[in-house]
From TrEMBL:
Protein family (similarity comment): Belongs to the DapA family.
SMART domains: DHDPS (SM01130)
Organism this protein belongs to: Streptomyces argenteolus
Protein name listed in UniProt: Dihydrodipicolinate synthase family protein
Oxidoreductase listed as a keyword: no
UniProt KW keywords: Lyase
Length: 300
């Protein structure tokens, strides 16, 4: 199986779409489709339904399947679909199989939230999922700074469809070491902490980055990618300065408002409701104006 097209697709702005909710709390399917079309029309070429910005852990299994299906439908060959899967092994395997059967090309395996994660257990967990869908590219989402690069290499030795990594440890030096211990050229390295960390991670080996901000302003995120691909860090940092405050608001208090700020920005543009599900909360009224002011200064 030639995995090179999937690897090429990962080396990009990996958009994490929000999941908009209707007034009754259900998924707002028309709004979701419209937001996906907006991303595609804006130039996005890879999307991750059921990512953290999509409130993965707040969705029911049926809702996660719905999000996968409508994303594949809207992508329609215009973009690669990288479906977020996770929870216990049977649930993750079932979601991966559903993604495959729906027509997605890859799955991203969410960081295990189990309080007792050993390195060998981490390998076993991902091996069970990757082994169930050998037709799909598999991308582990790594947030554990204690995980060794050699563990990823061991996983890929038995599961060659593990082709990339979403690395989200906030330490560029650690990322550089991990990538080289695992095999810098062996995997596609995606900076998993979005635009604020993308320049430093690209400097040490990343070739793509995830984004929630791209829901609001696709051109801004794609502009940073263009600069980073060209090695123009001055231009990339101009984008960084432009979006810095927005991303800081998302990261405040251990990312308590990560999704909330994105949905507030979309609400300010009239694109969806601001509603989020617990344990997230909508922004206080006093902060809403700041988000709207941030977005108003961008080229949307």
């Amino acid at each position: 199986m030639d995995l090179s097209p999937l690897k090429a697709a990962l080396a990009d702005v990996v958009a994490i779409p929000v999941t908009p909710f209707a007034e009754d709390g259900s998924i707002d399917v028309p709004a979701h489709r419209a937001l996906l079309r907006r991303l595609l029309d804006g130039g996005v070429r890879i999307v991750t339904p059921n990512g953290n910005t999509g409130e993965f852990y707040a969705l029911t299994p049926d809702e996660r399947r719905t999000v996968t299906e409508l994303t594949v439908e809207e992508a329609g060959g215009r973009a690669t679909v990288l479906v977020g899967v996770g929870h216990d092994v049977p649930t993750a395997v079932a979601a991966a199989e559903h993604a495959r059967d729906t027509g997605a090309e890859m799955v991203m395996v969410h960081q295990p939230v189990h309080p007792y994660v050993s390195q060998d257990g981490w390998i076993d967990y991902h091996r069970a999922i990757a082994g169930a869908v050998p037709e799909l590219g598999v991308v582990p989402y790594i947030r554990n700074p204690l995980l060794a690069g050699e563990a990823l290499a061991e996983l890929a030795d038995s599961c060659p469809n593990v082709i990339g990594v979403k690395y989200a440890v906030p330490d560029a030096a650690r990322f550089g070491a991990f990538a080289r211990d695992a095999g810098l050229e062996r995997f596609v390295w995606v900076a998993g902490l979005a635009e604020l960390y993308a320049p430093s991670y690209f400097a040490t080996g990343a070739t793509g980055f995830t984004s929630g901000l791209v829901n609001v302003a696709p051109g801004v995120s794609l502009g940073m990618l263009e600069a980073l691909r060209a090695g123009d860090y001055t231009a990339a940092m101009k984008v960084w300065e432009q979006i810095r405050r927005f991303e800081e608001l998302r990261a405040d208090r251990q990312s308590a408002n990560n999704v909330t700020v994105v949905k507030e920005a979309l609400a300010s543009l009239g694109l969806c409701r601001r509603d989020v599900r617990a344990p997230s909360r909508v922004l206080p009224e006093a902060q809403r104006a700041e988000v709207a002011d941030q977005v108003a200064g961008w080229s949307i």
